[in-house]
Each structure stands twice: as structure tokens, then as C-alpha cells.
Write a structure and sequence with these properties.
alpha+beta; seven-stranded mixed sheet; two-stranded antiparallel ribbon; globular; binds flavin-adenine dinucleotide
Amino acid sequence: MFEVQNQPPPLEPYNLFASDAVLREAVKRERAAWADGELIALGATLGKPETIQLGFDANRYAPVLRTLDRYGHRIDEVDFHPAWHALLGIALNAGLHSSPWAKPQAGAHVARAAGCYMLGQIEAGVYCPIAMTYGSVPTLRQAPAIASEWLPRIFARDYDARFRPAKEKTSALIGMGLTENQGGSDLRTNTTRAEPAGDGNFRLHGHKWFLSAPMCDAFLVLAQSPKGLSCFLLPRWTPDGERNAIHILRLKDKLGNRSNASSEVEFDGAYAQLVGEEGRGIPIMIEMASYTRLDCAIGSSALIRQAVAQAIHHARHRTAFQKKLVDQPLMSNVLADLALESEAATVLTLRLARAYDESDEISVVFRRVVTPAAKFWICKRTPALTQEAMEVLGGSGYIEDSILPRLYREAPVNSIWEGAGNIMCLDVLRAIERTPNAADVLRQELDAAGDARLQAFAGRLQQRLAARERNDEAQARALVRELVLALQAALLIKHSPPAVADAFCASRLADEGGGAFGMLPRGLDLRAIVERAGPV
Ligand SMILES: Cc1cc2nc3c(=O)[nH]c(=O)nc-3n(C[C@H](O)[C@H](O)[C@H](O)COP(=O)(O)OP(=O)(O)OC[C@H]3O[C@@H](n4cnc5c(N)ncnc54)[C@H](O)[C@@H]3O)c2cc1C
């Protein structure tokens, strides 16, 4: 038997909070320092070898659809591996599905964002129902009777995996059904019909082309009612205790996100209750989308962080050509570049989460403009970053046990789900156009950094925002990229060590290089950047 040599130890157990300097600082700065104790406890739970294994198991043993029971009755159930349920139990126990609503306080959305950022590093699939449940609360509140029945269950932290009517359960999760076969971006094309049942409720007939986490207890769905496209709550069970007529046709065979089921469904007169004003379905669902889009930015920042943590950990232990990889000058450049991307994603995401904690004018404008912008750019950077991190591990990075293949397969989903890249950029244009003080708010945010390098870049951005062509749709991606880079630079200049801010400005604002990571210019303190990002 050969001797195993020069292999790093696994990165476990480790505390995902205590070992992450950037996250700890951001939580404190964005006013959630009170949550430190809970976040340290969650970071320890998530970083245990047995929890990490749950993530692997939940993905290896994919959910299975059972349409019929053995006698031929429709049951439309999906069986998940016990690891899925165990991970959801951890997430609910930490309140990641609803804590800012159940216990509102300054920094509540930031504290939750930090918890989700850690969860998403260990298993991203369970984050889907967590995000949808979190996003559903403001929408459900538009229907007070529904809210008073459902919110206590949504706020509960005892995960109940049973497929039973919600009133028999300790807790409930909510999913969403917007996308239909003929279109997901342009929701006006929805054809599912909602017919008044005569008792104030509705019956749905139609289909949804994507309905993720189909074992959620209820779904917010869009359907055409007599007054136009409206929002409905569609429970899995009817009030008289029957299975609702939601037929799961098949589960999608997805690239990644494999622990989670995403289904195609048909409604055959399914019982549903109207949420909010009839005919105003799209604006009602857009509010939910704002929260789930924040979660896409958090989820992708999480994937980035886990990839960077694994890459640095590996490079610290693996030797090639008589040096640790981390000390090879070119590897040091690659790792520092990855670390910069990660820190920039994290600080922007948590700054954005704070905007959800506050209701002043600046915060409202900030979240309206920056949510789609951050979702676009952070999610867009994730596939390239996870590929590069995989390469740091060499051949072992391509092997499932390393977690990098799972991160890589997961990487594109947040960019598509809840509005693909182009839709996000067009949304940023719309937000700027419809918010008279948007340019001022952004300028204040950038000016506060008081930095000459940023000033020149931000000046060009401001000119672009003021120009008549700012609504040129074909240029929207370029504009949004600049906006995000400027905001990230401002945050790093204000709050991060100079080594990080200098390298970010020298690479991202100078518009040199590009195309691959690891092309940072000379004269930067690469060692300090990598040291800071290491999972110690
Ligand atoms: C894993 C996964 C889970 C999902 N889960 C759910 C779920 O639970 N519930 C749900 O409702 N949906 C879900 N979706 C669907 C998802 O939200 C949609 O796929 C997405 O919104 C895009 O819609 P579409 O697929 O119909 O693409 P289309 O709308 O056909 O868009 C295709 C492309 O065209 C671009 N595009 C569209 N309009 C324009 C324009 N005007 N200018 C320029 N470009 C444009 C888009 O950016 C996109 O790149 C899920 C998707 C995935 C991959």
C-alpha cells in the first residue's frame, strides 16, 4: 500500500463564522453585532463533519417523485433523503426562514443574511425553500385573514417534515409558482386560470413549468382571474383535509441544486385563496421577488466564499516545486484575486441586507436599485470563480469529495432564477428612471469613500447616469457592472484593510486584464489579502 503524502487535511471541523474575518466585521458594521453568539453557534454546527456530510448525502441521494400510491390513487409526493430534512431542521432552528419578521429588530435582516451565507456554503439546495418562505411574508401580510392563520406557523422554528394539512403541523414552508412553459420573464403571458368558486375562494386550472421545493405547505402563485393577473395562496391540502388538486407531472433533471426538487405541475381545479387586490398579481409578487433576489446575492456570495475557503486551505497545505502552493508567486496572485472577489461580494451583500432593515429614503432607494444590480453581478461572477477555485485543487478539485464540483454546478442557478441577468439589468434601468433621487443616493454612497481612484471611476458612472442614453437597453449590463464595481470599491475603501482596497481598485477600476483570475498588477500586498481570507 502506498503512503499518502502531501495531501491537505479536510477543512473540518471549523467554525464558519469565527473563521471568517470579513463576515464578522460586516455583521458588526451593519448593526447585527447582537447576533454574534447565535452566529458563532450556527457556524460551529454547520462546520461539523457530520453536518458537512449531510450536504453531500442530500445531493447524492436525489429526491424521488411518487405520483401514485400502490393502488393507483394520486398522491403527488416527493421523498427527500433524511439529510435534506436534517439540514432544513438546522436552518429553521436558526430562524433563517423568517426571523426578521418573527422578531423584528435593528440588524435582523443582516443577522439572517449572515446565517444564510453560512448555510449556503454547506448546502445550497435547502436554501431554496428557506428563501421563498422568507420572501413570502410581506406578500401574505397583504391578506390579513390568511396572514393571521399562516404566519404563526411560518414563524415557528420546529421543522415538521410530515406531509399533512398545515393546521396539524408545528411549522410551515412556502414556495412560489410564477414561471409557465411559455414564459418566465414576461409573466403577463401566464395562462393559468383562477375561477371564482362562489364562496370567496378560487379554483385554479393550468400549469407551472417550474415549482421548486414542491413539498412546501403552500405556494404563492400567479393566475388569471376575472380582473386580471392575481396572486393566490395555494395550499397542498384543502381546508377539509383533502389533498389539493396539484398534480406533480415530473421532477426536473437539473444541472445542480440536486438535493432540491424542482417540479412541473398541473392544477386541476385546485383550491386557492386570493392574496391582495385582484388584478394586481405582478406588483404583489414583485415585492416577494425583491427579498428572494437579495437571497440570490447572499446565496452566490456563499458559494464564492466556500470556494475561496477551500482553495486557500488546500494551497496552504499542498507543496509543489519545494514550496507550499500558497507561497508560489503566481498562485498567490490567483488566490488574492479570488479573495478580493469574495470580500467585495460579501461586503456589498451585507450592506444591501442592512437596507432591508432600515426604512429611510436612502435605504429604500438603495434596495430598489442595488438588489437587482448585486444579483446580476455577484451571480454572474460565481461560475468563473468556482471554476478557478476548483483548479487550485488540481485534479482533486474535479472530484466530488472536494465539494468544488457541487459548488460549480450550483453556481449558475442564482443568475437565472428569480429573473435572469438581462432582466436584472433592465430592472436597474427602470429603477433609476423611476426614482428621481437614485443618482444622488448613489453619489453620496460613493463620495463617502473620499478616494481619488474611485472619484474618477465614479465620475464616469455619474456622467453615464445623467446622459440621455442611460436607458439604452443594449448597454445595461455595462452600466450595472460599473455601478456594482463602484459600490464594492467604496465599501472596501471605507472598511477593509488597505491591501484589499488597493488591489480591488488597481484591478477592477482600472479595467486591465480580465478574462481570468490571477492577473493582479505588480506592487500589491497579495500575501496580506490571502492571509485575511483564509479560513482560520
Ligand atoms: C433550478 C430552478 C428552479 C426554479 N424554481 C422556480 C420556482 O420555484 N418558481 C418559479 O416560478 N420559477 C422557478 N424557476 C424559473 C425561473 O425563475 C425562470 O427560469 C426565469 O425567471 C427565466 O424565465 P424563463 O425560463 O421562462 O426564460 P425566458 O423568460 O424565456 O428568458 C430567456 C432569456 O431571455 C432573456 N430575456 C427575456 N426578456 C428579455 C428582454 N426584454 N431583453 C433581453 N433579454 C431578455 C432572459 O434574461 C433570459 O436570459 C426556476 C428555475 C430554475 C433554473
